[in-house]
Write a structure and sequence with these properties.
Elements lengths: L1 H7 L9 E5 L6 E7 L2 E7 L10 H13 L6 E5 L2 E5 L4 E2 L2 H5 L1 H21 L9 H15 L7 H15 L5 E3 L8 E3 L4 E3 L6 E3 L1 H12 L3 H12 L5 H28 L6 H23 L1
Antiparallel strand pairs: 1-2, 2-3, 3-5, 4-5, 6-8, 7-10, 8-9
Length: about 290
């Protein structure tokens, strides 16, 4: 009820708006607001220092992504509240992302994100360096006495080995959270939403995250790299990509471990941790075997 009162009190509406809960969102709460003939999305969420989420960065990245033509417009923001233009359509599923027709449409969207969004970003920009995030999460988990502490030393050791295997690095402005649910299809075009983790990064993190989050086949991964880089995949690029795919899975795993003990959102983080650690172990095993 407090959330609804907060939303209805915003100085935007011409009358009494209709408010409904939107599904999804595991770092914030999302609502659809209809005011007259126009609809909006209201995202409620404060800074989350343990996840290195700055809502000011989210606002700046959202505005830049809109200027780049890939994300809805920012209508209003104030501390803890972001109001966006509503895009009618549906969120994609992993099955959608794996389909050749959607992959053909997703790659240009990612290229635009990487090539254009940073040109429109205003203010001090962040860098999203997954290796630092992993080490910071490990320290957070240790300080909190997480039940996952016994395995952290080994996971950090692997992260450092992967860091040595993923360079040299190109740097682009990345989305850094390419879950299927962050793509919207309005029937005419795709949109990329939810810029909580946006910042400068290697493009291989987004590509590895897209593949790992949506379980692309190896043949699709090769196609993805060839389409994105517009050249055949060399052995060196394939090695660095597979290492970064492991990093994307490891970062997601530790994110979930931290959320288990710090998040108040109703979501089964323990199950999500188990799913991601299993996927990380498989990917890491495949990477090690490819190195021998």
């Amino acid at each position: 009820m407090a959330a609804l009162e907060t939303i209805r009190s915003l100085p935007l509406w011409n009358g009494t708006p209709e408010v409904s809960v939107l599904k999804g969102g595991i770092t914030n709460r999302n609502y659809r607001v209809t005011d007259g003939e126009r609809s909006y999305v209201v995202r409620l969420g404060d800074d989350i220092p343990i996840h290195q989420i700055s809502r000011q960065n989210e606002v700046a990245a959202s505005r830049a992504a809109h200027a780049a033509g890939i994300s809805p417009a920012v209508i209003h923001h104030q501390p803890g509240i972001l109001v966006l233009d509503y895009v009618g359509g549906r969120t994609l599923t992993p099955d959608d992302v794996r389909s050749p027709a959607y992959l053909e449409r997703i790659v240009p969207l990612i290229q635009t994100c990487h090539r254009e969004t940073g040109r429109h970003y205003r203010g001090a920009a962040t860098i999203f360096w997954a290796f630092h995030v992993i080490e910071d999460y490990a320290a957070t988990l240790t300080d909190a006495g997480s039940p996952h502490v016994p395995r952290l030393n080994e996971l950090v050791r692997r992260s450092r080995a992967l860091e040595a295997a993923t360079g040299p690095y190109d740097i682009v402005f990345g989305h850094n959270d390419l879950l299927a649910a962050n793509f919207l299809d309005d029937g005419r075009r795709l949109w990329l939403i939810d810029w909580d983790y946006a910042g400068y990064n290697t493009p291989l993190f987004d590509l590895g995250g897209l593949a790992s989050n949506n379980e692309l086949s190896e043949a699709q991964e090769v196609w993805l790299l060839e389409r994105y880089f517009e050249r055949p995949v060399s052995g060196d690029l394939w090695r660095r990509y597979r290492a970064m795919k492991c990093v994307a899975l490891l970062r997601e795993t530790l994110w979930s471990m931290v959320s288990e003990i710090h998040s108040a959102i109703d979501f089964d983080y323990a199950a999500y941790t188990a799913e991601n650690i299993a996927r990380f172990e498989r990917a890491y095993d495949q990477f090690q075997h490819s190195e021998t």
